[in-house]
UniProtKB/TrEMBL annotation:
Name under which the protein is recorded: EamA family transporter
Residue intervals of the EamA domain: 23-148, 163-296
UniProt feature coiled coil, ranges: none
Keywords: Membrane, Transmembrane, Transmembrane helix
InterPro entries reported in the protein's UniProt record: EamA_dom (IPR000620), EmrE-like (IPR037185)
SUPFAM superfamilies membership: Multidrug resistance efflux transporter EmrE (SSF103481)
GO CC, alphabetical: membrane
Membrane recorded as keyword: yes
TM helices/strands, residue ranges: 12-34, 46-65, 77-97, 103-124, 131-150, 162-181, 193-212, 218-238, 250-273, 279-297
Pfam families cross-referenced by the UniProt entry: EamA
Amino acid sequence: MSDTTTAAPARWLPFVVLGIGLTAISFGAVLARLAQAEGVSSLAVATWRLGLAAIIVTPIALMQSRQDLARLSGRQMLMAVAAGFFLALHFATWISSLEYTSVASSTALVTTNPLWIGIASFVLFRERPGLMMIGGIALSLAGSLFIFWSDSQSVGVGSDPMLGNMLALAGSWCFSAYLLIGRRLRAGLGLSAYIWLAYGAAGLFLFAASNIGGVSLFAHSSMAWLVLLGMALGPQLLGHTSYNWSLRYVSATFIAVVTLGEPVGSAILAFIIFGEGFAPLQFVGFSLLLVGIYLAARGEQR
């Protein structure tokens, strides 16, 4: 989990790591749905996904990044708290969305963060988007509208697909804020220190929210605990950490394009495990959304 070494890995290794990370992250929505089926509330699922990941990475961070952590400034601590806050909101809203809408719609909408980051860059930093970025945003918004419309007309998509889709979009907005803050924080910190601070802060926020809301955090079945541990080890530590590690060796734009595979992988798994299919209009929306994000990522690179 260290990225302080100066030796470059083999050229093929980052691509293999990204493939493993994508596969692990694609299981996130399915594992969350399985935990919910075991009676674990969405807030508890989010709390343990981040909390267990932070606990597991603690000894690694203390061994590898002790000096980075000892030199933390007050500004870096505030940024870590802010990053953790938005990461906590991301998982709380996105995992909650899985109670109300399909896995495919939820993961397609929650991975729209490259679009919102592009818009935020224009609003906050006056970075003028190019034609490809504008076209990508337009296509993605059109795709989102198709998904919303398809889900509103379908029966059996979820208990409240419109609410679920809005929660998934809110999760994407929160993740965009987390990335914008974390990008600055990551520049001065090693990988394990950054992950420990971000995951730990998010876990503490979610733990506090669970206690305030009276959410049960410990009265779960053995199967539920296995699923929660799997979420922490797989999608969170293996998946997200693979992306963060690869960022040192490949472009951020390429990683953004790789993440487009998450909705596809999650949808395939949901079809196999839960029997969730696609409506024709929903499939059109997925296609427009993925093409739009790809164009937006290419536009950002240019």
